[in-house]
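User: Okay, second chain of the day. Same drill as before: sequence in, structure tokens out.
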Amino acid sequence: MERITKAALCKREYFSGFGVSLEGVFPFPVGDLPSSIVVFPGFCDVHVHFREPGFSYKETIASGCAAAARGGFTAVCPMPNLNPVPDCAEDLAVQRRIIGRDASIHVVPYGAITRGERGEELAALEELAPYVAAFSDDGHGVQSDERMLEAMERAKKLGKLIVAHCEDNSLLRGGCIHDGAYARAHGHRGISSESEWRQLERDLELVRRTGCAYHMCHVSTKESVALLRRAKAEGLDVSGETAPHYLALDENDLREDGRFKMNPPLRSPEDREALIEGLLDGTLEIIATDHAPHSAEEKARGLEKSAFGIVGLETAFPVLYTKLVKPGILSLEKLIELMAVNPRRRFGLPLGEDWTVWDLDRRFTVDPAEFLSKGRATPFEGMELYGRCLRTVCGGKTVY
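Assistant: Same drill. Structure tokens below.
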């Protein structure tokens, strides 16, 4: 890594809109190395689970940041399903102290929407607002229409996004994977698509009433894409994200292994195609990993009984570059917008002296034993991918 002194591709437009001048930012000229060596702005993931405080056996701020930097990320937003849940200034301070001590990249936490993420009493949103990226109860859908309406009204006054995990608990029925062909063939209880899009439908009606800025987590169904597309056409202030695993895999790739269990689940090929179309037409503006590490024991109980969640920070760009860019489905420029530019713009996060260097021709096989994350469960294990991160710089300092 220390021998890298030039880069053949450094698109200035990647850095536009952040007030960043390339002159003086990079310690090398853009020169004549092979075109496979590229420089991007540091990626930004607005949906990660770093598990600390409360569940440091799964991940810590330090290990999560190390994994992120290895994947080219220089900014992340960790979700609030922690112990204590950051639902007031006092409990958020516990997490912020750890971030201040251990973070090697920019870590901007979420505040919870409701106390303890229980969906009942609203969190102390006014106390949290100055210190958080947005408000979310990720891991849980807010079941009460009244609570979500109240949350949106308060968030609008505070100038903060509501970031929603859309899941109607009454429609889950104990499922573990998508309610589709694989579930029927293997005798698994399925998670219906309606459990996702039905709550999104409710939320969009509340957005119409309140004018709240709204972002949907981990979009996985074609119906959700269609609902967001219509909402955008109406002029509502809404956005959505999807994740690499929903774009590269579908239910036909499932195996009886905990590393294929996540929430939402891998859906049908038709859903995957709709997600890609949503990226291409601007309905979905962001790709986020939903990096959700668990212990080896928690992921070793098979497809039905393992914990929901997979890791994704260290494979995100190579998966998307290999599966979408190389086949010509998505341009490289569009991918950088989705991973680095759009997340920062939507969440109001700065760029600064953050960049990452990649060799796009470097081929490798995914080996979880190499991960810097404590989590090892990935559906991409053993897959041959292109693109290796050579260096990541955050705030002018090399962090990988």
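DSSP finds twelve helices and 14 strands in the chain.

User: Thanks, on to the next one.
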